[in-house]
């Protein structure tokens, strides 16, 4: 029996069409099974970002940045602190490393350089329910109030990115205690 004879039979035409439909359906199902599953959307992180200050000596005040992940999603964060030209940083602290200190042009400078400078710490993974702390021992170079600005940024490290969030900024005015007079 040849193909023409098979297709010529009226009762076989619907069966052939049914087999073709079944074959196409099986191929489509196989393709869907090998496709990557759709990524589930990550909920937006909930973060609390604050600046605290603590007097630590004559003309010195600790500026403390606290970030608390109050949500359920881990995030990768980069924290930075900008100091004006009338203040410097004697030392700094983060969960893992010291900050890189750069001027407005991006060149590395010393912590006490009399110019606007930004301390930028390496990115940290902030797990849900955890608080991380960064700090700088601020030294007032003159006895006038110092305005500091902190920024918290969502980052990608390599090709790893946790939940994204919009940049968060905080500003604070710090008044350093006056220097001690000799004999007092």
Short characterization:
The protein has 184 residues and is α+β, with helices and mostly antiparallel strands.
Characterization of the model:
Strands 3, 5, 6, 7, 9 and 12 form a six-stranded antiparallel sheet that branches. Strands 1-2-8-4 form a four-stranded antiparallel sheet, with no helix packed on it. It is 16% helix and 42% strand. The protein contains two helices and twelve strands. With 184 residues, the protein is of the alpha+beta class. The protein has helices at residues 3-8, 12-34, and strands at residues 47-57, 60-69, 75-83, 87-93, 100-103, 117-120, 124-126, 131-140, 146-154, 156-157, 160-161, 168-174. The longest helix has 23 residues, at 12-34.
Largest β-sheet summary: 6 strands, antiparallel
Overall pLDDT score:
83
Identify the overall geometry.
Answer: elongated
- Tell how many strands the DSSP assignment holds: 12
From the structure above, extract its key features:
42% strand, elongated
How are the elements arranged and paired?
Blueprint: H1 3-8, H2 12-34, E1 47-57, E2 60-69, E3 75-83, E4 87-93, E5 100-103, E6 117-120, E7 124-126, E8 131-140, E9 146-154, E10 156-157, E11 160-161, E12 168-174
Antiparallel strand pairs: 1-2, 2-8, 3-6, 3-7, 3-9, 4-8, 5-6, 9-12, 10-11
